[in-house]
Every structure is written in structure tokens, then in C-alpha cells.
Amino acid sequence: MTIWGRLLGTLIGATTLGFFGALIGFMIGSLIDRQGALRLAAGRVGASGRSAQDLFMELLFTALGDVAKSDGRISEREIALTESIITQFGLNDDGREQAIAWFKRGAEKDYDYQQLLRAFAQTSRFRPDLKKVLLEMLIGLALVDGQLEHGKRQVLHGIAHGLGIPAPVFDQLLQILQGQASFGNQGGQQYQGHHQYGSQARPSRDMLEDAFKALGVKSTASDREVKQAYRKLMSQHHPDKLMSQGVPDHVIKVATQKSQAIQAAYDVIKKHRKEQAQVA
């Protein structure tokens, strides 16, 4: 698929599926270079004899099916997001059929793919970035309908455990994505920093709670800890840094949206604490 095809798929995901459509577009874009090739190609071949790329694709769509069906039904938005993923990966007809087959198999009741999970974890043991990308995409699907159902959370915890990702690390990642979604879905409107909600308005309790989640810190975190978390996230997602790494242009656009959400969250916290200090 051409860069324009992937760009179209990303824009569709972003406009119809909100923050998580854009997030997954960003994740996929980070795996694809400017020539349209998957960056997974250099992955190690494990005891299974299969490459990290092959295992990643099978595990991704199998787990997407499992997560989608874990609350009893697969929603239209979950199907749309999965279709968006297929489009953005640029799969041909055979690849599309295979991806759908994996998704359906993962959605089957009591289907066991632990062996596949272990094989990928072993093959990608020196690629923690791949594990994180996989988990973020699955979290995106789990949250695309809104609140995270208990069944979906259990499935995600199990997958994180199988990947060797500690529960506290998973919980923090989930919290960050939920918080950023609250800002990202309001992009350019209510949550775009203090310039948007005006000098007279105060951040609501929900807005403030989401802001701390978006930065991955507790409300009791010191100003220094908040700033460190903010700088770390901005460093990871800053468009200029990604541009220097040669990622596709459409990924830069999504990264810009994500960095704006992070900036807005930080602005909310700073404004709140400044007002608290003035009252005190």
C-alpha cells in the first residue's frame, strides 16, 4: 500500500474513532518506515522458527478478537477499529483474510493462545518496544467504546503478564492512555490548555483527575515529579524528535495531537496548583 493509502487509513481512524483511532494509527506508523516496510523485519527468530513480525501479526489479531469478545459481544466500533488496523498495515487480500481469521479464532470461547503469546514474548525479549506497542493497541481497542469492562481488563492483564510486563507497569500505562484520551478526544476544545478554558474558569475535578492520569502521576506528586513526567512524555512524542527519526508524515501529525493533549494536561495541573498557592 502507498503512503497515501496508509495516510487515508490513519485519518479515517482518527476522525471516526477518536483518540484511540489516532493512537493506533500512531502505533502502526511507528512500525512502518518511509518505504512502507515494517520495522519488525529485523526481529529475532525464536525457538518456534518464526520471525517476530509473523508472531506479532498473528498475536495482535488473535488478541484483538479475544479482547473484543471478552465482554460478551463485539461492538461496531471494535469492528471498525480492527478494520482500520488492517487498512493501515496495508494488508493485501490474502493478508486481510488471514487477519480476520485470526480475529475470529481469538474471539472463540476458551480459545487458548498462550503458546503463541509465549513464543512472541521469547522472540521479542530484546524488543520491549514491540511489546509496548502491542499492548497499547489492545488497550486502544478495549477503550474504544468508553469505559473499560472488567472482562476486558482481565484479558489485558493476562496478556501483559504473558509478555513479561509487570502489573504496576501495565496499570500505569492504562491510566496514562485513559487520561490522555480524555484530553485527546476534546482536542482543540475544552482541554486545550488555559488559553482555551479562559483565565476565569477553574479546572473541574474530573478534568484535574484526567490531567494527572494523562501524565501518569498521582495527585500527591510534587511539582518536580509532575514536570519530570511531563518532560518524559513530551520527549517520547515530540513531533520534532520523531521527524528526525524518519517516521512517516502522518505519524508526525498524530504525534502532534498527542503532544498537545500532554501539554494541555500539564497546563491544567499548573493552573490548579497556582490557584491553590494563591488561596493559601
Properties at a glance:
single chain; 280 residues; 2 domains; elongated
Give a quick summary of the entry:
The protein is mostly helical and 280 residues long.
Domain count: the total is 2
Strand content: under 5%
Average residue-wise pLDDT: 78
Number of helical elements: 13
- What's the number of extended β-strand segments? 0
How far is the N terminus from the C terminus?
Answer: 59 Å
What is the CA-atom radius of gyration, in angstroms? 19 Å
Name the structural class.
Answer: mainly alpha
The level of helicity is over 70%
**Helix and strand succession?**
HHHHHHHHHHHHH
Q: Biggest sheet: strands, sense, closure? A: none
Shape field: elongated
Low-confidence stretches: 1-16, 187-200
Domain J: 210-274
Keywords: Chaperone, Membrane, Transmembrane, Transmembrane helix
Transmembrane segments: 7-32
InterPro entries: DjlA_DnaK_co-chaperone, DjlA_N, DnaJ_domain, J_dom_sf, TerB-like
Commentary on this structure:
It holds the Pfam family TerB. This is Co-chaperone protein DjlA. Keywords: Chaperone, Membrane, Transmembrane, Transmembrane helix. Residues 210-274 form the J domain. The protein is an all-alpha fold and 280 residues long. The chain has two domains: 1-165, no CATH class; 178-280, no CATH class. It is built from 13 helices and no strands. Helix 1 (3-30) packs across helix 13 and helix 8 (167-184) packs across helix 10. The termini are far apart.
Q: Which helices and strands appear, and what pairs or packs with what?
A:
Elements: H1 3-30, H2 52-69, H3 76-89, H4 93-107, H5 114-123, H6 128-143, H7 150-162, H8 167-184, H9 194-197, H10 205-215, H11 223-237, H12 239-244, H13 249-279
